[in-house]
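ZP: hey, is the LXW5BMXJ complex queued? I don't see it on the tracker
AM: it wasn't, my bad. submitting now with these inputs:
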Amino acid sequence: MAGTKALLTLENFINGEFVPCNSYLDSYDPSTGDVYCRVPNSGKEEIEAAVEAARAAFPGWSARSPQERSQVLHRLADLLEQSLEELAQAESRDQGKTITLARTMDIPRSVQNFRFFASSILHHTSECTQMDHVGCLHYTVRAPVGIAGLISPWNLPLYLLTWKVAPAIAAGNTVIAKPSELTSVTAWMMCKLLERAGVPPGVVNIVFGTGPRVGEALVSHPEVPLISFTGSQPTAERITQLSAPHCKKLSLELGGKNPAIIFEDANLEECIPTTVKSSFANQGEICLCTSRIFVQKSIYSEFLEKFVEATRMWKVGIPSDPSASMGALISKAHLEKVRSYITKARTEGARILCGEGVDTLSLPPRNQAGYFMLPTVITDIKDDSCCMKEEIFGPVTCVVPFDSEEEVIQRANSVKYGLAATVWSSNVGRIHRVAKKLQSGLVWTNCWLIRELNLPFGGMKSSGVGREGAKDSYEFFTEIKTITIKH
Ligand SMILES: NC(=O)c1ccc[n+]([C@@H]2O[C@H](COP(=O)([O-])OP(=O)(O)OC[C@H]3O[C@@H](n4cnc5c(N)ncnc54)[C@H](O)[C@@H]3O)[C@@H](O)[C@H]2O)c1
Ligand SMILES: N/C(=C\C=C\C=O)C(=O)O
């Protein structure tokens, strides 16, 4: 383990300044298991300072025109893009994801989040109606809500943080963001660019630390009227309880147990590689990842054989290896949790076709204490097994057969989550029918994770409350008022 002096030490960013903290948390490099970074262990005191800064900055920032705010967001996007390689290296080291994914997805999408909201903020219009018989004109106006509390998870650190910061500040709010304590580095790096981009002090404050300590201080603060949260369902429950006495606006983007439904007329040449990717991208640590694959009986054996063969080609490697498809999981505790699901599946009599406990993973000596595991395929498993019902959030997917359209819809809908589904078929009528009946906020057909940022993103049932996207985020981060003029 490196000595304390060599560790990267992060600081909170409050009122445009880096502020040291009097207590720190260790942060681990998932590819080695070594502590490599110290993250501020903030609490109520830091939230008070951030609230003061955000409150003071609000009148000036909210009074700027959308065009002026848009220019600032564009400059920030440009600066992030100029640091793309540095940010990608940092994200890959901090999270365990491959450098290739960080370079091609996480950081480009973070840049795009600022560009997208810089543009979309210029195009909103409000409503107006007439009541000539009583001589009235009605119209709506929107205003920023105030100080937005933003809480993000560890799987797509900068990507999901910027997906909240960009629409919040574009709409004229000031923000206090709390990234995951497990992956705080790229948020801290972004803070170094804010002044150059022209973000005034206090508009973006980033406070680091754990959920129970600093997260709850943020959620419970009476001067933070809105919380946008992405993370797990149990944490969302706690946030809902804490914010209820203040009637806060809440956006909750939570987990999934996402089905892929593969009909006999699917194009398997496209379906198999895409379903391997949808199951194992980012180590299966994407809320949209497929974890239940339903395959029509007539093609079940063929699919299974080809799918397992393709999964074995999904290379696990150290995150800095550009040829790796998958890196390390986020933490030792998470790795153990994911492995425990495979043990449970075995105990229930399911078959593990490849991956954990079946194939051998070879790693360089330096990485043997890292949190790696092979992509794992489970079959002969019942729908009521915990592996088919609970979110595992790791590189584990279950494959089961089905007979009919009605049956598979009912089984796909039989879990508490409703985030994302994929449907594979060449019958357009069936695609429409099935997509409409699935209890899922997002349905991708014959593809996966093609994002259109204008349209609503989010889940139903236990996968969340509210939607994010151009119009949805704008509506969430603003308060609407209806004005009536009698003339
Ligand atoms: N729907 C989506 O868009 C989406 C995207 C990414 C991840 N997720 C979900 O996130 C989960 C994985 O992320 P995670 O393990 O970081 O989730 P988590 O709920 O443990 O943590 C998310 C964030 O909440 C904070 N937090 C934890 N306890 C808190 C509390 N009591 N009060 C306030 N904040 C608290 C954490 O510190 C972190 O910043 C999975 O369930 C995954 O599906 C959903
Ligand atoms: N919010 C988005 C993705 C969430 C992924 C979860 O892990 C997005 O693409 O906007």
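AM: back. Residues 99-120 form the longest helix (22 residues).
ZP: great, adding it to the tracker
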